[in-house]
Design brief:
The complex is a heterodimer of chains A (197) and B (597). Chain A is α/β, with parallel strands linked by helices and 197 residues long. Chain A is 28% helix and 17% strand. The longest helix of chain A is centred in the first third of the chain and has 11 residues, at 2-12. In chain B, strands 13, 14, 15, 16, 17, 18, 19 and 20 form an eight-stranded mixed β-sheet that branches. In chain B, helix 3 (265-285) packs across helix 9 (402-412). The chains are: A alpha/beta (197), B alpha+beta (597).
């Protein structure tokens, strides 16, 4: 009965209302990576997971890649056994949509180092997480709980150079969580381009 | 040649607009010259090509507000951007707030008084994000050159456009409008009171802050009597607590500023609890130092007379009528838009002076300097007037439980407010009424005897103290309130809390006033003690004090946001956590528990 009510309320609620919430279980999803291999979030249980929403056409995303900021964070976290998943939720058919091949090529040109790059061509995962901007960052703890959602850093206005000196919220959240401390800044307003739903 | 140059410079010169493929930008001035010491409006004219848009101060789900970094000559000052009403721009399931095509963002620039009468270049670097489907961040160095003169005329080229833009900048709501906010499950309701004859249709609210109200959520406008309710959904992923609705209400071609603190606690408190708190607070008022001596004397005075139910009723009536008058005054003044709370009667130096004189009379009376016939009158009017007297002497005091109950009453208004004040009055009147009417209760009273005049003289002491204290309050109000401050404390402001919390420091806020006795007791017994100060220092706690001795609408609004209408209120803010409101009677342990817990 309870699940029926839940299902009904899910069906009636607007997308934003049932989105992932900090402090709650991160909703599970399966999405194909650029090689077409399905990646399932719940299979990463036991490790920290970072979700990074991206769109190569977005100047804010490019700022974080041109400065090397995103790649170095991906590598740093990869070294700490964090599962980094980069997600492109641009709807297939949108002018900025990138095929898996185009996406794979762009990521390798950037020297990006996520565990996987996911192609969310029906924007299902994006809407599930209520991703609004690119970049929009999420951190999930080894128990599967969402512990951070929001902007990558505190410098919305920064130039490419200044990006390096910004306070990175993802690094801070992971650092605190790995040290067994509560995440002090757990939600911020994301900034960037609109996710192309 | 020099003359020619001078001539050229005396004409206001706007550098040619900077053009990008998607936008053009320039600075334009409303007047033909700058006048020393006076403001003029300078606008950033930003024009996106057809189909493209730039952003409002809150860009919505994505985007970036346009920014202006002024580089002004020494002594010049520029205000914040004044933003005209934006459009709502839906992008799939998301929502942005911005401007298609051309927009003028206004800034007031003031020239220093002692500026030379020579042309001045006002420079600024503007940054904006221009989007259609794609987004392009752009910036430009802009300038406008203006002569400085004793007088200035409107620049016919730009003054009309700037005036038209100004008409689109949300103003404070005119008389008759009123906004109140209330927390609801999953969001908030904005209650909109409109002037007679105004009907709202398709009105909507745009928040200043990001991450508080869901930009794309449907806002439902419903009519309730002559007022309206606009339901707002909280952000799906809130970046902090929603403590007030700050933004603009857009209605057809008008828009008004909204600054409505959320009455959260009051929804939690509920009428039944508020009534119980008010009753308990009223009972305890009898024990407060301003009330106890006066009522003791009256009770002992009628100990030898006959117990009569009628006397009790008259006393109750005296108390209730007085409380209703106070409540009516408070609710009435608030309805007129005054930001007042409990204690408002003591924010006027005249009221304090009158009360001080009154307490002096009472004290002299108790000391036996003269007999105040009114208060000693035994007839029916005597009991009614005793009730009035009790409320008058109680008015500088707040008892425990009263704060939360009155906070509820003041925010709720209407019949609920009167119900709370009635419960307060009944609680206060109960002990006297019982003693006046029930013979059994009088057995507890001591027999009258020669000890009574002596007791009276002793009871005069707290009244003299009250006079001294009111005198001190008066000095604080008329003079500078410096005595309330020491080095450890900084003046309170909402901004300061945000800054300090942002820097990761815990913040302790003391809402206080010179006329608040409980505040002074807490200051002496807890906050001012060396061990408490050490504890604050060890924890690197920032101490902010909001001094409400004089009227201050900002403090009144902040109190309302906490569900209170009077002082003392103590709040502990810890980074990343909801603020904790401490009880009115402080102890060191409670403060520490809130800081460490």
């Amino acid at each position: 009965m309870k699940s029926l009510v839940l299902a009904l309320s899910f069906a009636l609620a607007a997308p934003a209302a049932w989105a992932a919430k900090v402090g709650q279980a991160a909703p599970d999803f399966t999405a194909p990576d650029v090689q077409g291999k399905p990646v399932k979030l719940s299979e990463q249980r036991g490790k920290f997971v970072v979700l990074e929403w991206t769109n190569p056409e977005c100047p804010y995303v490019r700022r974080h890649y041109d400065s090397g900021n995103m790649q170095s964070l991906q590598k740093e976290m990869g070294g700490k056994d964090v599962v980094w998943l980069t997600v492109n939720s641009t709807r297939e058919g949108h002018g900025e949509f990138k095929s898996p091949q185009e996406m794979a090529k762009w990521m390798s040109q950037q020297g990006a180092a996520p565990k996987a790059t996911l192609i969310d061509k029906d924007s299902k995962v994006g809407k599930m997480y209520d991703a609004r901007t690119t970049p929009h960052m999420y951190v999930i703890d080894p128990q599967g709980k969402l512990i951070y959602a929001g902007a990558i850093d505190d410098k919305r206005w920064a130039s490419t150079e200044q990006t390096k000196t910004a306070k990175n919220h993802v690094r801070a959240a992971l650092g605190e969580a790995m040290a067994g401390k509560p995440v002090s800044v757990a939600a911020t307003s994301p900034y960037g381009c609109t996710v192309k739903y | 040649m020099r003359f020619l140059l001078l001539f050229l410079f005396s004409v206001s010169v706007a550098a040619a607009p900077v053009k990008t493929p998607q936008a053009e930008a320039e600075l334009v001035a409303e007047t033909t010259a700058l006048v020393p010491g006076e403001p003029t409006t300078v606008a950033l004219r930003l024009k996106a090509i057809p189909g493209w848009h730039t952003y409002w101060r809150n860009p919505g789900d994505s985007g970036e507000p346009t920014r202006i970094e002024w580089q002004l000559p020494a002594g010049f000052a520029a205000g914040d951007i004044e933003w005209p009403v934006p459009e709502r721009i839906a992008v799939g399931p998301l929502m942005n707030f911005g401007y298609h095509g051309e927009v003028l963002l206004l800034t007031r620039v003031v020239a220093p008084r002692d500026v030379d009468l020579k042309p001045v270049v006002l420079k600024a670097r503007a940054h904006w994000l221009v989007c259609e489907v794609q987004c392009i961040p752009e910036s430009a160095d802009l300038s406008v050159t203006l002569p400085v003169a004793r007088t200035a005329a409107a620049d016919p080229a730009w003054a009309p456009t700037i005036a038209a833009t100004r008409a689109r900048i949300p103003a404070a709501a005119p008389a008759g409008w009123r906004f109140d906010a209330r927390e609801e499950e999953g969001g908030a309701t904005l209650a909109i009171t409109v002037p007679q004859g105004v009907a709202l249709k398709d009105a909507f609210f745009l928040p200043f802050a990001e991450g508080k109200i869901e930009p794309a959520a449907q806002q439902t406008l419903t009519r309730k009597g002559s007022d309206y309710r606009l339901s707002l959904r909280a952000a799906a992923q809130p970046v902090g607590p929603l403590s007030s609705l700050d933004g603009i209400l857009v209605h057809q071609d008008r828009a008004f500023q909204v600054n409505a603190p959320l009455s959260a606690r009051f929804a939690d408190l509920g009428l039944a609890v508020a009534l119980a708190f008010a009753f308990a607070g009223g009972l305890l008022l009898n024990l407060m130092p301003c009330v106890l001596p006066v009522l003791s004397i009256k009770v002992l005075g009628f100990a030898q007379g006959h117990a009569r139910l009628r006397d009790a009723w008259l006393y109750v009536a005296g108390v209730l009528v007085s409380f209703w008058l106070l409540a009516g005054l408070l609710v009435g003044l608030r309805a007129l838009g005054q930001q007042l709370g409990w204690g408002f009667q003591l924010q006027s130096p005249i009221a304090v002076a009158v009360l001080a004189a009154f307490f002096l009379l009472l004290a002299l009376n108790l000391s036996g300097v003269f007999e105040l016939r009114l208060s000693m009158a035994g007839g029916s009017s005597g009991h009614f007037l005793s009730g009035v007297l009790a409320v008058v002497v109680a008015s500088p005091c707040t008892a425990p439980f009263m704060g939360a109950a009155l906070g509820y009453a003041v925010l709720e208004s209407g019949w609920r407010a009167f119900a709370v004040f009635t419960a307060l009055g009944l609680g206060m009147a109960l002990p006297y009424a019982v003693l006046a009417s029930a013979p059994a209760a009088r057995r507890w009273l001591p027999r009258p005897g020669p000890w009574m005049p002596r007791l009276k003289q002793w009871l005069a002491v707290p009244l003299y103290a009250t006079v001294l204290w009111l005198g001190w309050v008066l000095v604080q109000q008329v003079g500078s309130p410096a005595a309330l401050h020491d080095d450890a404390w900084q003046p309170w402001s909402e901004q300061r809390i945000v800054e300090l919390s942002g820097a990761g420091r815990p913040v302790f806020v003391d809402f206080t006033a010179a006329w608040c006795v409980t505040c002074q007791v807490n200051e002496r017994v807890v906050l001012g003690r060396a061990d408490m100060k050490d504890a604050f220092r060890q924890r690197n706690v920032a101490l902010l004090r909001a001094d409400w001795t004089k009227r201050d609408p900002k403090i009144a609004r902040a109190l309302a946001a906490l569900g209170r209408s009077g002082v003392p209120v103590y709040v502990v803010y810890r980074p990343g956590q909801a603020p904790v409101v401490l009880p009115e009677i402080l102890t060191r342990e409670r403060v520490l528990a809130a800081l460490d817990g």
